[in-house]
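ERR on first pass: missing label on line 2. Operator R.T. fixed the label and resubmitted. Corrected input:
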Amino acid sequence: MATVSGDDVVSLHDAPTRPMNMIEAINDALDIMLERDPDVVIMGEDVGYFGGVFRATAGLQDKYGKTRVFDTPISECGIIGVAVGMGAYGLRPVPEIQFADYIYPGLDQLISEAARLRYRSAGEFIAPMTVRTPFGGGIFGGQTHSQSPEALFTHVSGIKTVIPSTPHDAKGLLISAIEDNDPVIFFEPKRIYNGPFDGYYDKPTRPWKDHPDARVPEGYYSIPLGKARTVREGQALTVLVYGTMVHVAEAVCREKGVDAEIIDLRTLVPLDIEAVEKSVEKTGRCLVIHEATRTSGFGAELSALVQERCFYHLEAPVERVTGFDTPYPHSLEWAYFPGPIRIGEAIDKLLGA
Amino acid sequence: MAKQGEGGGYNRPRLQLHVPEPKFRPGDTVDFSHIVVPEAGVQTRPDEACEASETNPLCTDLVRVLGDDNKAHGPWDPRLTPDKLREMLRHMALVRAFDERMYRGQRQGKTSFYMKCIGEEATSVAAAHALASDDMVFPSYRQQGILIARGYPLVEMINQIYSNRGDKLKGRQLPIMYSSRNYAFFTISGNLATQLPQATGFAMASAIKGDSRIAAAWVGEGSTAEGDFHSALTFAAVYNAPVVFNVVNNQWAISSFSGFAGAERTTFAARAIGYGIAGLRVDGNDPLAVYAAERWAADRARMNKGPTLIEHFTYRAEGHSTSDDPSAYRSAQEREEWPLGDPIMRLKLHLIEIGEWSEDQQEAMDRELAESVKAATKDAEKNGILGHGLHHPFHTMFEDVFEELPWHLEEQAEQAIRERQIKWPQ
Ligand SMILES: Cc1ncc(C[n+]2csc(CCOP(=O)(O)OP(=O)(O)O)c2C)c(N)n1
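pass 2 clean. output:
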């Protein structure tokens, strides 16, 4: 079985692959980690017998038993709190929060506790948990099934924030997250669970199966946290992006025939600053995209970093494309979503067209 | 501290984790004989002004009024007039007709989502009838019965469900997340149990101001695991707040049975005992018992005797929502075997029994209600269905974030409108 270590380019040519959608890839990663590490336990609302409302844990309770994979009371505070306690014992809990929009009752346990145990006990206690949670909109979920709260977590010291954009990465990153000794929040872009949505909501969506990044290597492999992925190389501008928006950015650049370099950040904290600098220094122009609200979003951090570190290479101000600073509206979901038009305008502006 | 390995190693017994398991899974034969169903009418009814502890025995009992003979029994019989009973029957039947039609509408692509309350109609309709129309209710997403009992127009409900240009909530909320200040119906949240401390706070405010209105909140049994539930009860107990908490124990929280909220250990009503407030456990499929319990609690609150926790013991007869298929996790037989029957059927049979109703009248009423729902649906469809262009103007998306629009939202509104013109040039 191939193992990837230390490098940003994952090459697993020797491992046989299987086409998977993102849910299957996540399920596979969980299966492998339950198998490899008897300290891994999975819990959350409806994750046990039923296998999760998105089916990410389907079949795992059957295979590993009820004390490794189990349902919980509806209490996000309880779920994350007991994960802290289990971590203190030496387990490696992988709690699921059914929707990122429902993580807020658990924030005290995550922010004041999990994120600070190591620091406040000088390393005596750690919280080696991975909180998995679906996030993002585009499914007509209204304001409580659509949010992208990643910046709340990147703002907290002591939590790693990981966001995959392909089945291949979802598996390798989730395995790394579970193996990591620090608390990790693992946001799953639910809009692309079943296919690489490109932002054209009025056109039929493709399933993952024909996408090259849906060819997922069998067995164990990990993708290191803190390493970005170059989706495509280019000279005209750098696009810093993650999650669902990777595919939207790709589609827009393809359609406009822009020679963009698209960097899928994969991990927001710790950030692959080298990859960011290298690309922006080469292209001199930078577009930051996220679906989350704009004000104090992670794009603000990225744009500040680029300005601080690449200022003399910049030929235009950094552009940000984001969701609007409103709750996610139900009927006007597609007016809210930072789609091809918004991205296209920003690219034109950056290139001075 | 040494890490303990397998078996502990201290010559002490090995610990085991208990993970609850429901009695029946798909395909299992269902036998509900473990559920104790006491005879109707035998439960004592303490005075509304009693010490909270006097209700303790009722927290593990089951208040029932309608017996197998379809007659009303015992001290909890609210002795409602036949007109009132017929009105409650009508409202419950209307809720059911409405649910059936909206469910179909979702399946036909007219909206994104719907949630029925089939089998649980009494817990909202009968309870709403027991409250004053200006008592503030803090519902969960399964109390459409309150709006219907308060005479809220069906067309408005459907406009909201379709997120169309007639929707008073401007298409912002997920279907069925209603709000109506005029009908004393608090805006529904998607985040579970948040309404409970809010109801306590409303009740406290009413008491601060020397008002006479009380508050009532509803929550599913699964959601009582949230911290908000416990905060709400603590505050209510501390300030003796005039609030009624309704826990609708429909046995299931999506795929998780009530054991995951603690039902293997005690009843939900018994939570009241620990907080020192009044508690009642009622047959939630018995509209007369629900009415009586809610009325008892409301009167108690109005006399400044404090909060009551009511557990409505009922059954979620269908899926959690249009996104759920319960055949994947529970036995289909449960619905048929449910020992407390169906609330509409029970009230209908009672009215027939006392000579105030007939099957023919029921049939005629059902037909009439189906027609009125159909007519309301047609009216609402004139305002559009989800995703077909008849929505609120783009600018409304940016309104109500704050009282006044700050510059950045104004800029973003311009952006949204520009994008619209690019996509659909007139
Ligand atoms: C804070 C929060 N966590 C999780 C959810 C997801 N969720 C929605 S409904 C539901 C089950 C609620 O069950 P219950 O309280 O028993 O009410 P019922 O649906 O049976 O009426 C869950 C887990 C949510 N909406 N909010």
